[in-house]
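USER:
Working in pairs, take the chain set out below, taking as long as you need, and write a paragraph about the fold.
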Amino acid sequence: MQSLNLQYNPRIDQLRWLAATIVFLFHFQLEYRGLGGPALATPWAGLITEGHTGVGLFFTLSGFLFMQIALHQGSIVYRDFVRNRILRIAPLFLTIFLVATSIGRDNFQPQDILYLAATNLGHAPTSGTPVTGAAWTISLEFLFYLVFPFLARFAMEQGPRYLLGLLVLMGFFKLSAYTVNDNSTLMYFSTFVGRFDQFLIGMLAAMVYRQHRARLHAWAPWLLLAAAAVVVCDTAALHRFAPFGATPKSGFWIFWSMAESAGWAAFIVAWVSFEPRLPAVLERVLCHGGKVSFSFYLLHMALLHLLAKYVGRVSPVGNGWVDAAIMGIVAYGLTWLLATLSYRTIEEPFLQMRRKYGTDRPVHTTARDTVH
């Protein structure tokens, strides 16, 4: 997706596509198992069975991209930054929220409107059904947007040690919260305590990339293989020791989000540093997938639910795994078409209203100039 504040990098859109695809595969395999299909039992399939890790990639990538923009621009005009973020997420998010409140009209309470700012907490209308369930991440993401210009300012003034200090504090909050929360796994999965560190790690990765760019580009192929291995091992370990939904309280989750995000941050830096271009057709397809990834993410659960309810499990060849692949490809293609329609009718008209929020000042600007 083109930005007014940083030169377009197709690698970022390709990573958005990857994150949305991983989350899709996670929910698809859950639906397929629910229809009686075979389960992926090996930990080495953790990238799918624990495919919620795509959300961790989204949060880490957001921190990385916005810190890149801050380092490039040197300062951010706060009101314009927030305006752009509202134009980016509000139209589709409000649409999903209205769908959720329409579904739950009989139980709706006026105070439920406040869930617009907290879809990740309590009994938000969007969490009532799988049709709108993916929207829980949006309130968290917007919270990170609200504080990002200040975080960027302090990080550029004090260097990476500022972000490292915040990560130490987040580790303390995670550990202490574990002792008093009986459903700590869900807390780490869907709240500030569990996710803010991922945004910070993404920001830190952007600062590392800027400082060591030449060296990272030289070693990118090897770094990419190593980072991919770390991500696979991370999800395999989670599948083996503390799979999501298996237990409401597990010490493994205390620092899981940091480990997860560290793996994804390494992958992001390696992929952005990797210079060989993909085949032109493949690159266009993946970049389009990144462009429509927000719609893809918010709509895929509704489409999978409809297919499960009205089509069910089909067996065109009689082999469970081949049938799963065929069903997955069909569902993915339909979601792709739906996301493209949503992007062009709901998202794109508002995206064209965005404006530049950087001030093109060097990164060493004084404190008073960095956030307005």
Observations:
- The chain is about 70% helix and 0% strand.
- Residues 362-372 have pLDDT under 50 and may be disordered.
- The longest helix spans residues 320-351.
